[in-house]
Amino acid sequence: MITTEVLKELKSRGIRIALNPSYDSLQDVENKILKIKEVCKGCALFVCLNDANLSRATEIAKLAVKHNCFIRINRMYQGSNNSEYIEEYGRKASEMLDVLLAFPKPAWPNWVIDSVFPLRLNGNKNSYSCGKGLFVVDWDGMLRSCNPDYDSTIGSIRTHLHLKDFIFPQKWNAEDLSECKECSWLNLCQGGCPYTRKIAYGIYGRKTPFCEVHKKIWPKLLELTEKWKNSHRELYEKFTYNNVCQ
Hints:
Distance between the termini: 29 Å
Largest sheet: 3 strands, parallel
Number of helices: 9
Strand order of the largest sheet: 1-2-3
Structural class: mainly alpha
Helix content: 25-40%
């Protein structure tokens, strides 16, 4: 589908392209990036660290910086109850952040790790984009607050006509999690993704199984955030943190 004609049409409609490496070879991924940038100038990489991409995550990050692509790193939800996956995810996420930090041009830090918005730490809102404004519309018009979590129904397009009508059941505020209250990373982590907690423990009311991983990668994510802010100081100070994050 990545043809010149299709890309020109997408560009004319103002549609931005996020490329998923999936099971393509690294050479095919690079060829697609070059093809997209030839017409659209910009390209993002949204990388799910599954069985195909976890082992080559560092190489994918190097492709992103080589071609000036924004990169988003997503862990596998089902890895939440697999200790070997959690450990390897931690190593690879850390390596990917090292690649981004070493690159002269600072990477935009939002969404680099899952749905975390570290630029929001300037304000009182929590640092996740999920669970408070993003929602899924199913084929029958039902609304859910989490794409993979089918228990997160919040209403229907026939009843929820304004944003004020939405009440999100999945809490991203970790203040109610006793395991997290004294943690120095509370504001950034917020207990982690509720769905990963549900997979690991069967309930939302526990801290993320990625807790120890987060403690190791959050310092690098904040370092990346500071590097971006220092490089874009005028832009960052001109707008509120909400403007920048959106």
